[in-house]
Fold each of these.
Amino acid sequence: MLIFQRSLTHWISSALLAVTVLSVESLRAQSFAYVANAGSNTVAVVNPGDSSIAAQISVPSGPTALAETPDGNTIYVASSNMSNISLIDANSRSITATISLPAGALPTTMAVSPNGSLLYVVDQGINAITAVSTASNTIIATIPVGWHPTSLAFTPDSALAYVTNQFSNTLSFIDTAANAVVAEGPVGANPTAVAVSPDGQSVYIGCAGTGTVQVWGPPGLVATIGGFAYPKSIAFTPDGTRAYVVNANAFSVSVIATGANSVIGNIPVGLLPSSVAVSADGSTAYVPNLFGLSLSVISTATNSVAATVPRIGVYPVAVVAH
């Protein structure tokens, strides 16, 4: 792995200053949440309008991660027990294809690039990112990163991806054109989550070891926000004014006002919240509760739980807002 001998401040500053923000109008309505249930081998389709479960889609054993194409037509489901990825057609709600991962793969999180061309899969089994071409549904690269990668996020122009390496206490920078790491640098202890703001100018990193969220921008480290309890997942509202942070050990979600980089609310949710996704219109945040076997539906207008969908499945671990 190529590691440039430059500071993380330089690299994040340079990368964010170079980001071209793409303004793409969504062609689809935001109408459902998809939730992966690791223990019941299903993906639940939830209608947020009435908090009903519209469908339960059977998937291969141990679904641990979800990702969605920008057009909303395809949902990717990574199954850790089977070392594969299933493609669900969002219209028919059926599996249309399967991508085999290398034997021993342990997919934990994944994301589709904003331009829709790449699926990046975090594989803790080999400490690498598996790059998949969405056009051919084939693996095109294996990208070594740090020790125990936990989360990844693309810049809005799809040129870069950031990967948190929990046991290395580092952030890896991947050039998506080359599918290669071009830099790696230190961040806070035990980084577990990363998200890039919609304008591409800020990177938020959840650090479980210090109970903080670091905010990096063109000047470097802009702020360190405290008061979190194992920040496991971060999602921005589409306008970038707020970030929602899952506190796995506090059974809550913190709300950050990004203008001031301060916490403006803490929302109690269910037992062991595992991830968060915000709807395209910014009105709703969805939080699956791993041991609560439920989905918390948060109103972003009031920063409170508007509904709780019970019996969503066994061990709901990941969510995308479709």
Amino acid sequence: MKSLLALLLVVAFAPPEAFAQANNREVRPHVVDPSGLGIKATVQITSEANQYHNFLATDNQGHAVAQRLPFGNGDLAVSRSGFAELSQSVEIRSSVPTELTIQLKLTTLNQSVVVNAADTLIDPDQAGCQVGSDSDQRRGRN
């Protein structure tokens, strides 16, 4: 009975902040290359509903931490030179940090070949031009 009374006194006199759930959460992106090795990259986290915008840089192993994020949905965009930019949604709904592994793909190369029609070998402006005259003479067609 005394322990129950002590518990009620602690609860009654504890500040309200002790029972309130913080409105800030954490996202831990890990950016890797196609082989799975961590790489440096730029990570942008945005949430239009919460008016939140933040840029992060990953370390040499591809890790970063975004702290004090508001609850809700957001977008995460990852970019690095030589790799295709990747965007995905991120949902922050609990007090447990959200860990994301983001694998970037190599940028595809776009090449094109332009072929132009070359000038003809026959000069249409020369009236006396005979095409294949040597082979015609050998066959007796003069």
Amino acid sequence: MSQIIDRQSLKKTVIKIVQETPIFDLHTHLYAPSFGNLLLRGVDELLTYHYLVSEFFRYSEMRVAQLNELSKPRQAELIWKTLFIDHSPLSESNRGVLTTLQKFGLDLGSRDLETYRAFFHKLSAEEHVDKVFELANVEAVVMTNDPFDDLERPIWLSGYNASDSRFKAALRIDSLLNDWKNSSGRLAAWGYKTSAELNDLTLAEICRFLEDWIERMKPLYLAVSLPPSFRFPEQSDRGQIIEKCVVPVTRRANLPFAMMIGVKKLVNPELGLAGDGVGRGDVASVEVLARDFPENKFMVTFLSRENQHEACVAARKFRNIFLFGCWWFMNNPSIIREITAERLELLGTSFAPQHSDARVLDQLIYKWIHSREIISMLLAEKYEDIMRTGWLVTEEEVARDVKNLFADNFKRFVGLK
């Protein structure tokens, strides 16, 4: 048995292990440097990220169209002045920018945006990635790869060179499931014998399309973002494609189907990417999928806080459900603390407590620094609870548990271990 932890040193030991354990970030919107400008990085990208854009309009009388007409550097300057200078940067997305700049060794006391810009401009994409992965202690990230994206698709078709093995693929199929009327024509233009009507030939061709892209991308899973109104089974194009295409294809390929449920698209259309909202999803639909297709694997996260307890109970009942992360509007310290505690109490260590959902490379730093702080505190509390019964806890056991939470649970679920 390895070193037994005494209660006096428990908190310090858990924090150290959590800080030193590398992360396998199972869901991001990042790209490898070989994708060129699709990899967003630097302080201007941090400041113009849609989280901060929506906050900017809480204070500014400017119209959205007026902001969009400005260059990205000018947008960043306005957002910096409004959110960081004219008001205290207390929100989580604002604090995240400060944490990130601090970890790069920049002087936050100066509040000098031009100095921060100059620092990032000196970094090549490859240098930048290496530095961020080091500061965040991240071993690998899973990208979001969309064959319907006109900027990304040509890169895959031209023979994407996966030269940086730290970037893994995930096949995103939102357009296929949520907008079949338009997607059917696109597939037909790409050489698939599809029509708007989901007849046997069209369904077979959808399967062929998925199989082709699985072969091309080698994804770790297939993924979709779903609205609160999603139900399964449902008499819809989406319901049929899931049942007759996604389920059999992922089962044959032994790939999980990841469902991110609860986003209300464009509740404020004027805001564009910043205009999405949240609604309560239907956990029963996930239970039906897990029950009716026991040989399939389902990764699940919900956007609404109100779904979290029910989702934990569902995951207790179905081992083919893998619960992951505190997604998007859930990624606030008060909610992360609550939801992670609830999951530990209902699921032990059999889930993935967090993913970054980062769209800007540098967000990896603050997302994981902030989450590690909360997770280490919660784990220390839970170990303290069992130690009071006389149970002995060792450093080796804590390291095992943290490694499972941060990497190995996911790796086993997708077949990497």
